[in-house]
Amino acid sequence: MSKTTAISYHKDGSFTRPDSIFRNVVSRDPNAEFPAEPGRYALYVNVACPWAHRTLIIRKLKGLESLIDVYHVHPIAGPDGWYFSGQGDSPSEDPLHPGFTTLKQLYLKADPTYIGRYTVPVLWDRKQDVMVNNESSEILRMLASEFDHLLPETQREGNKPGGGLYPEHLRAEIDALSDQIYHTLNNGVYKVGFAKSQEAYDANIGPLFSTLDELEARLEHKPYLHGESLTESDIRLYTTLARFDAAYNPVMMSTRKTIRHDYPRLHSWLRRLYWDVDGIFNNAFRGTTAPFSLYTQCYANGRQKIVLGPDAPLIVPDLPGEEVLVPRLIA
Ligand SMILES: N[C@@H](CCC(=O)N[C@@H](CS)C(=O)NCC(=O)O)C(=O)O
């Protein structure tokens, strides 16, 4: 099957996100096409990207750092999209394909007929030299469960309090909440911030804040979205809330409220994950969160490119730092 997808971001002024195309799975089954093996897979990420952020969180939360490599592209796109810059954490070329300087080259190596967006995250199989998957929700799930036999007992899902990140008895509830969070928040902030018509903006801003209001109420009697323990839904919400006051509110026009001023329970939930005061998350949240000012800068850049146009001035708003956005929690 030829892997093609629409490149266009907009339909009638509304931002649309095409489906990811590479959808293979890594499995704990040693006979699978992509069996979980130490050192075999690598993740390509952009530290500013919330979808890639999901995969960085789960890699650290599970303690998979020595089993799965990470390669960073430059956080701000070049003329050909994501590229390796040799600056900060980004190598000057693709470590697995010397000479490749863009993610586009990696996608075309995976499929020379590919026409579509060159998105992060990408999970790459070094052994067969192929792209396994470029859909963050699926990579999140694979990394959460399929490498467990390579990890110490305490890191395995079945041995986690509450039955792990995606326990059988909560699956329907987690899927339903993830779906709502995806449409109104994870992707909702893009539908608002990248709207190209007042109608598209108006249609999406209400559902975004209704979901935040609902989640605020939901946390009244429980520390995490589904009860006493962290689940997949918390990870999926975190990547959006960590960027909310730094980027989605000031740059992407989700201006009605901020997390730190208007949502005390969500704010305290965010600070708890971020600071990991009980040391139960292997610093997976703060340790994978970029400097907040980078989020501001990257979204200002993205909105200029996608909505305002290259001739518009690039203005990056001034914002407070970590000490105001997520004040430190002491154990
Ligand atoms: N559904 C994908 C979406 C990934 C995605 O859209 N990533 C953005 C960065 S935040 C990207 O790479 N965009 C490049 C482009 O649109 O050309 C996932 O969740 O993995």
From TrEMBL:
<dbReference type="InterPro" id="IPR016639">
    <property type="entry name" value="GST_Omega/GSH"/>
</dbReference>
<dbReference type="Pfam" id="PF13409">
    <property type="entry name" value="GST_N_2"/>
</dbReference>
<protein>
    <submittedName>
        <fullName>Glutathione S-transferase omega-like-like protein</fullName>
    </submittedName>
</protein>
<keyword id="KW-0808">Transferase</keyword>
<feature type="domain" description="GST C-terminal">
    <location>
        <begin position="167"/>
        <end position="292"/>
    </location>
</feature>
<dbReference type="InterPro" id="IPR004045">
    <property type="entry name" value="Glutathione_S-Trfase_N"/>
</dbReference>
<dbReference type="InterPro" id="IPR010987">
    <property type="entry name" value="Glutathione-S-Trfase_C-like"/>
</dbReference>
<feature type="active site" description="Nucleophile">
    <location>
        <position position="49"/>
    </location>
</feature>
<feature type="site" description="Lowers pKa of active site Cys">
    <location>
        <position position="248"/>
    </location>
</feature>
<dbReference type="InterPro" id="IPR036282">
    <property type="entry name" value="Glutathione-S-Trfase_C_sf"/>
</dbReference>
<dbReference type="GO" id="GO:0004364">
    <property type="term" value="F:glutathione transferase activity"/>
</dbReference>
<feature type="binding site">
    <location>
        <begin position="135"/>
        <end position="136"/>
    </location>
    <ligand>
        <name>glutathione</name>
    </ligand>
</feature>
<dbReference type="GO" id="GO:0005737">
    <property type="term" value="C:cytoplasm"/>
</dbReference>
<dbReference type="InterPro" id="IPR036249">
    <property type="entry name" value="Thioredoxin-like_sf"/>
</dbReference>
<feature type="binding site">
    <location>
        <position position="82"/>
    </location>
    <ligand>
        <name>glutathione</name>
    </ligand>
</feature>
<feature type="site" description="Lowers pKa of active site Cys">
    <location>
        <position position="299"/>
    </location>
</feature>
<feature type="active site" description="Proton donor/acceptor">
    <location>
        <position position="190"/>
    </location>
</feature>
<feature type="binding site">
    <location>
        <begin position="117"/>
        <end position="120"/>
    </location>
    <ligand>
        <name>glutathione</name>
    </ligand>
</feature>
<dbReference type="InterPro" id="IPR047047">
    <property type="entry name" value="GST_Omega-like_C"/>
</dbReference>
<dbReference type="Pfam" id="PF13410">
    <property type="entry name" value="GST_C_2"/>
</dbReference>
